[in-house]
Amino acid sequence: MRDTHSIAFRVNGRRHELTVESRRTLVDVLRHDLGYTGTHVGCEHGICGACTVLVDGAPVRSCLMFGVQADGRDVETVEGLGQPDALGPLQEAFSAEHGLQCGFCTPGFLMLLTAFLRESPAPSDDEIREVVASNLCRCTGYQGILRAARAAVTSSNEVRPPESGTS
Ligand code: FES
Ligand code: FES
Questions:
Q1: pTM > 0.85
Q2: 31-71 pLDDT, tens per residue?
Q3: 74: exposed, middle or buried (C-beta count within 10 Å: 0-12, 13-18, 19+)?
Q4: How do beta strands 52-55 and 74-76 pair?
């Protein structure tokens, strides 16, 4: 008999209720049960970061998390960042700055940087480098990814209202 659980969680704000096997990983639940195929699967053992999604705002390697552990949580995937005809700012920056070539790693980098830039809206280059070093890209040499992250920081600073004075 299969060991299954009924769970409910939100993906990009949309609630899903489903029954999953205990052993099923979150990335398989997202891709195969719910159709969020934007999240990619590379190594399947926590090294490459291609499967990075946000769980309650924190980046998680979804190949290392079971689907049942998402019960009651808020999950964000690359589908929540924009649409093909209306890319989000970070996606625009990746496109403009050649932050991708084959694109296999890109959803993971986008989610990793989304969480990072929410926490650190004005990071140094060294801080960006340290963060992107946690995911693997075989194509770009990382320079385009760094430029994209910098461009996203700059554009968000341009639209952010000036901080009000303390006096
Ligand atoms: S597929 Fe999850 S870290 Fe590589
Ligand atoms: S763009 Fe090909 S692996 Fe990163």
A1: yes
A2: 999 999 999 999 999 999 999 999 999 999 999 999 999 99
A3: middle
A4: antiparallel
Question: How many alpha carbons fall within 13 Å on the CB side of residue 133?
Answer: 6
DSSP code string of 1-43: ---EEEEEEEETTEEEEEEEETT-BHHHIIIIIS--TTS--SS
134 lines ligand 1 (CB under 6 A): no
Alpha carbon distance 41, 25 (integer Å): 11
Query: Closest Cα to atom 3, ligand 1: which residue?
Result: 46
Ligand with the closest atom to the CA of 137: 2
Which ligand is closest to the CA of 28, given by its number?
1
Are the C-beta atoms of residues 94 and 100 closer than 8 Å to each other? Answer: yes
* Ligand 2 site residues, Cβ closer than 6 angstroms: 100-105, 137-140
